Amino acid sequence: MSDVVIGHSGPITTITLNRPEKMNAITRAMYKSMADAINDAASDPVKSVVVIESNGDHFTAGNDISDFLNNPPLEDGSEVWQFIRAAHDFPKVLIAATQGNAVGIGSTMIMHCDFAYASPTTRFRMPFVNLGLVPEFGSSYLFPKNLGQRRAAELLLMGREFSAHEAASWGIINEVAEDAKARAHEVALLVAQQPPNALVQAKQLMKSPDHERLNVIMKAEGELFQQALTSEEAQNAFMNFLMKKSK
Asked: Which of 116, 134, 186, 200 is the most exposed place for a label (fewest CB within 10 A)?
């Protein structure tokens, strides 16, 4: 089976992270598969909803550190950037369903989803600074804007873990659901019944005030992230992470 499984059911596309033995840590190839699926749905007049979910006990452990060390995404237009652009520019409805660990981009992508549901087991965390990196996917803007500067500092500067119930109370997700995937697909079916043009236009109006601002911020984040990836600080943090993991 592929590390990313793409499913289709009428107007709904489902992207399933399928690397449970690695807690669905995301490689460059997986980013490419997800970006292609989102872009395909964007251009398909039949598709109106994309659901991102995962198999196993965890949504994702974030970026696969070994993959990034061996093949860092330093070039413009890397697979990581393709996914970020695809999700940010997706004109239709994007839904996420999480469980277990939702680390790094597993947390930041939620802010780009129109609906998000988390099982009670979900633990969100953004350990960018802990790894000698900087926040990505517009999180340096979206979290302070939506949660306030001080709470965002806890999450982004300290890498504090937060629960599904905290995420719901802060408005990061819609609700905590015992079966987050089932709830996400229930909502996807309801959304898919809406008039498609009105759906796209309404989303565009809702997102337009921040869309271009986020483009600028994500570009700046990406440039700093690329620089940080090759820094001695990040390399040491990565190696410490891998050593702890191997014990």
From this structure: 186
Unique residue bearing structure tokens 């490689």: 27
Q: Are 62 and 104 spatial neighbours (Cβ–Cβ below 8 Å)?
A: yes
179 contacts: CB under 8 Å, gap ≥ 6: 119
Q: 28 is written with which tokens?
A: 């460059």
Strands 123-125 and 162-163: antiparallel
Query: Domains (ranges, CATH) in the chain?
Result: 4-180 (3.90.226.10)
Instruction: State which amino acid sits at residue 123.
Output: R
Burial class for 5, CB neighbours closer than 10 Å (0-12, 13-18, 19+): middle
- Residue carrying structure tokens 């237009």: 77
The predicted model scores a pTM of: 0.94
